[in-house]
Amino acid sequence: MHEYIKYGEGVGAQYVEIKHATSQRDNIEISNKHIKEISSGINSMLGVRVIFKDRWGTAFSNKDNIEETINQAIKNAKANKQKTRIDTFKANKRSFKTKVKTDPANIPFLEKQNSLLKINRIKSVTNLSQQYTDITRNFGFFNSEGSELRWDDKITFHMVSSSAKKNNRIENYFDVKAEHKGYELMDDAENFSLEIMKKSVEMLRARNANGGTYPVLIDQKLGGVLIHEALGHACEADIVLNNNSVLGNKLNEQVGSANLNVYDAGNIINSWGWTPFDDEGILAKKTPLIRKGVLTNFLHNRETAAKFKVNPTGNGRAQSPSNKVIPRMTNTFIDKGESRFDDMLSSIKEGYYLKGSLGGEVESASGQFLFNAQEGFLIKNGQLIKRVKGVSLTGNILETLKNICLIGDDPLIHGGGACGKAEQYVLAGNWSPHIKIKNTLLGGQN
């Protein structure tokens, strides 16, 4: 790519970067042993980004016409009225490869299909749906600073959804296993599916929770979603610059309890949000967002970092070479604490234990949030008394962070979701140990 970088500089670009991304995907969707969809696809894209007369210009193509794409990027920069500035950084020359035990590309499509079809429903389960996907991805990044970065990646994904019925009542439960990993992820697919089916059946015994203010014990999945949605987005520097973050004027201030430490880290190998280098060629690293309750950093791409006069954090991400690079999370998580689960549970006289997430809403500007738990249990005198459903967790992130009083020693790395922002979706991991929050407002039905 060196000659094309020189070509871009020769026609006046102050900065040139060239990216290419190719992917090959196999996808199977099955419901009650009926095949709903089988598909395969190959996608390839070239992207060019330049700075010309202090203005960004971007162009993309699915053809190998790099000079033409550079010319189009410069033309687009000329039409851009907004000036920009980025700092210059040392070149990175690295290659990364996802390690797998069994390459999905070497598994016949029929074998993948049959591994799903052989999983049988259990009693009371009326519908068992599965989605299997594997993706082989290849990325390349080259820029005029001399960076040359490559990543050969594999992803395997298995989602299971179960519906159980008793009389006229139907309850659903789902879960996802997904990693930068090979087909070995499917080694335990049958047991994974069985556990989800059992969960849906168990939900038939759940009763509606009572709304009110209670101490709450939150599991690793819901804790991860909470910290991703309620804190992580508010730490993205473009949201801060647009005055849409409740944390905008809180840098270096106490925003959480003294035992709370939160990080974003794209360099955790094989984790769902693993990103060895971002879409601007910045190597991934671990960025502390909160240390001992103090807000310490925002998440930056190169442009926002220059505006804040700090180094980029490796969080400049885009869905594809055709999309704008913006600050995005990678893996956002609460660091482990010192409390044992049994001790956390026994500390609650009356409250709730909430597990998993069914989504929710967050307003980054105000800090208000609402999350729906996938399942829950009523706690009385440190014991799990009965299963409950329909529980929502609501509040303000600044109040909630300070109300985190105990943090478990049991983080559980989990992934499988895609984070949406600015009509772009990227893989983002989130997790947590068990956490106890005091004086939390819960929604439910009496």
**Annotation field: number of helices:** 9
Q: What is the straight-line distance between the termini? A: 65 Å
Q: Globular, elongated, flat, extended or rod-shaped: what is the shape?
A: globular
- When the domains are counted, the total is 2
Helix content: 10-25%
Contiguous runs where pLDDT drops below 50 for at least 5 residues:
none
- Number of E strands: 24
Q: Can you describe what's shown?
A:
With about 450 residues, the chain is α+β, with helices and mostly antiparallel strands. The chain has 2 domains: about 200 residues, PmbA/TldD fold (2-Layer Sandwich), CATH 3.30.2290; about 240 residues, no CATH class. It has 9 helices and 24 strands. Strands 1, 2, 3, 4, 5, 6 and 7 form a 7-stranded mixed sheet that branches. A 5-stranded mixed β-barrel has the order 9-16-17-19-24. A hairpin with an 8-residue loop joins strand 13 and strand 14. The termini are far apart.
Précis, in short:
This protein is about 20% helix and about 40% strand. The protein is α+β, with helices and mostly antiparallel strands. The strands form 5 sheets. Strands 1, 2, 3, 4, 5, 6 and 7 form a 7-stranded mixed beta sheet that branches. A 5-stranded mixed beta barrel has the order 9-16-17-19-24. It has a 5-stranded mixed beta sheet with strand order 12-11-10-15-23, covered by helices on one side.
